[in-house]
Amino acid sequence: MAIEKLRKEETLEMRKRFIGQSCRLFYSDDPVKIVKARGQYLFDENGKRYLDCISNVHHVGHCHPSITAAAAAQMDLLNTNSRFLHDNIVLYADRLAATLPEKLCVFYFVNSGSEANDLALRLAQQYTQHDDVIALDHAYHGHLMSLIDISPYKFRKLSGQKEWVHVAPLPDTYRGIYREDHPNPGQAYADTVKDLIEEVHRKGRKISAFFAESLPGVGGQIILPQGYSAKVAEYVRSAGGVFVADEVQTGFGRVGSHFWAFQLQGEGFCPDIVTMGKPMGNGHPLACVATTVEIAEAFTANGVEYFNTFGGNPVSCAIGLAVLDVIENDDLRGNAKRVGAHLKDLLTKIQTRHQTIGEVRGVGLFVGLELVTDREHKTPATETAARVVKRLKEEDNICVSTDGPWESVVKFKPPMCFSMEDAELVVQCIDRILTDMEASDS
């Protein structure tokens, strides 16, 4: 039986009636109804094509034929509880292990990044027998209660900070406490974590884990300063804790030069736990926790079985394997490196013409355009960023969004098939819009 097709007005009315209003739409004042997608393009009910700079979850491109074929073939054969013995989960784990440092060799498959981070928290607390967690300011690690508790981005709007949660400064060298003119910002920011650990110890408490996105996204597309993670890991491990790298948004080659964003911190750095999310399944519910034998053994030793009914099911793992094949066969890491560098270069060039562009930052296809009302004081240009996003959608059929503590960073996390021509189009349109806005405001 075919699914009934609704007019856009009917869809909106039914959504308002049936779907919780806290589940907000993109462009809520005039939502886009998307009915089809291919690659880096979205299509509305009238066939209008939009360039998608938002959907990092659709990692190798919307509706990639190889992914669709792998999903359909396995779904036609078997999809069942992951506690039955099956090849796909072990074959997929073996392929993932080949991308990671040798010590990260035990995997737990789940269905979402939130589930992965919640499990990482359990693993850390079980292994260390400590409770407290250090998180970065403005961090977001998921929507479960346990993760809202370690996500300042969320808990500051809700019930506030729990006594077992401690917030370290975001290592932002543009507007943070240590900036690009500091001789060693990585060490300086790491020392703030060391000071925080000492403060925690003075209260008679102990650290189980330091949680950080390898490249903070909600914080504003932040690139961590060199040396930061290795030093933080040293301090955290000395305090009996573990280092958790949240790669939900940044893993699987998005940074181009490396498969994992934590690898940007140098060969000498390896987290104790790595979490992954739905990009690994190209949007299919597939996520994972990778950790060490020692941490996994401590989790097993608690005597309580861990099972996740459909985490790592045959269909999910068939899709995961297909995604890895596409990343390799289509050279998507190479594409991310080339196109991301081109996008950054083009944005940096128009920065010379527009005082409202405070900073261009990023790596691979993880790029942020920080807008300010004045460069000296770096005052966030929240309204300008919102107007740019609105006009790109309305005038150019380009979908982007904002991030950062003040929603002043226009962010780019497109599908990895994003092209040189796409980058050129986006920058050309932003240049035109900013020029027009500056003329109107003068």
TrEMBL record:
Cofactor(s) required, per the database record: pyridoxal 5'-phosphate
Entry superkingdom: Eukaryota
SUPFAM superfamilies cross-referenced by the UniProt entry: PLP-dependent transferases
Molecular function, one GO term: transaminase activity
Keyword set, alphabetical order: Lyase, Pyridoxal phosphate
Ranges in a coiled coil: none
Stored Pfam families: Aminotran_3 (PF00202)
GO cellular component, one term: mitochondrion
Family that this chain belongs to: Belongs to the class-III pyridoxal-phosphate-dependent aminotransferase family.
PANTHER family (UniProt xref): 5-PHOSPHOHYDROXY-L-LYSINE PHOSPHO-LYASE (PTHR45688:SF6), PTHR45688
This protein's name: 5-phosphohydroxy-L-lysine phospho-lyase
GN (gene name): phykpl
